Fold this protein.
Amino acid sequence: MKQLLIVLVFLLTPILLVGQQDTLRSKLSFNADFRFRVEQDWDSRKSDGSYRDDRTRFRYRARAGITYNDNWFEVGLRLRTGDQRKQQDPQLTLGDGFEEFGTLPIGFEKAYLQGLWSSFFFWLGKNDFPFEKSNELFWSDNVYPEGIALGKGFDFESDIINTLDLMTGHFIISTSGKSLKEDAYFQGFQLLSSLLNNKIELFPALYLFNNIPNIPDGAATFVFNYSILHIGTRINLLRGDKLKVEFDLYENLEDYSQNDSIPNNFKGQKSGMVIGLKYGNLRTKKDWQFTATYSRLQQYSAVDFLAQNDWARWDYSSFDSPDGRLTNYKGIELVAAYKIHENMILKAKCYFVEQLVPFGIEKETGSRIRFDIDYKF
């Protein structure tokens, strides 16, 4: 409780200091959102052939942040609920081990300085994933990398190429306390182009991961590298972004054939594919949106504990880690969303998942349905 009070005082002090100064106060902005979720899981088979119990959960998430804008730069902080060991999931479950109506775990989600000068962009600290993506299947929206991001934009007076953005960055996953090359880190390089009057977006990227543990949160038995080539594209089939087709291809270029720590049946599991169809948008009140996504991600096509953990109940709990392990699967996601208020959205999501290569005698499976209420202040 004492730590929470210190954080609140830290966030509110700038507001109190500028209470009599309109020019400074106008540069401060506050943002917050709240989510309530009902979730049902069933048909979740384990690798030994047994089934997990069907599960119903009531969950929620709260976030609040403050930003200071001054000409070309911005400083921001944001807090969120959630287990601080579980970067993929800020949601809390009602009645889940926080004593009898005890206090909630809260931590910093973002803390950054970013700037935009002419066509140059940068940020420093802990902030949003800076690279373009259509979904969370490679990188979760709830995982905020720490490091340095740099970007440069170009505009073209052409009917073929409209804009071209270059983005790069270096992000530290776990510092070694030695030289930078000994850290667990990833580097990204991406080119984002808008073509044919914004009808097509193409965003190829290369992601280099160094010294990544095979199991997160201190239970690793070895570390290894990923070199993942990503080809992403979105095609607008109707005006006003009403109908989109999204494609993602992933290929890990590393050769694991000589890595004795990786089982033989997983050494070639390095490719991934995602296809999505999206109709409608959620820009104004009474808007509908429908999405269907098919995903097939092999074991090493992404770092599983940095990707989404929404599609199934698979995690590293047997290694005392709360992180999810959502690669090595194929499945579908169906989503229907409705904007009932300018600040409120209702969503229903349904998932059906099956493992590609079993860890035991059976392939793991999972089915899940969710109902979300999201309110943004």
Summary: The chain has a mean pLDDT of 92. The CA atoms of residues 296 and 330 lie 4 Å apart. The chain has one domain: 2-376.
